[in-house]
Amino acid sequence: MMSERRMDAYYYEFEPTKNVAIDKILGAVGCAGRAYHHTQNWCDIANQYDDHTGVTPIEWIQNAAFEAANEIERLCAREARLREALEKIASGELFQHAHDYARTALGEEKK
Fold it and tell me: How far is residue 29's CA from residue 4's CA, in Å, rounded to a whole number?
């Protein structure tokens, strides 16, 4: 379940994308607009909004972007590992490795 995140400022609002990382970036922009009407003030220290990290609106936005980038990087690495495992399964290499491991565990010699 997604938590309700502020996605609006005084003069604009965003629709949720249903992607937590992207919505956090949009939420940071919305909170920045709530904190200060003019972007020239987004480098000023502001009251904390939602769960954003940092003391200025610019930091909220940048840190949300860093979090999203880290999540994308983590997911890409996971996808690469899964693709590698699928290739090993398709080639029979993984099955052979599991078979050899089981035989070793049972104390049998390879034939």
Answer: 15
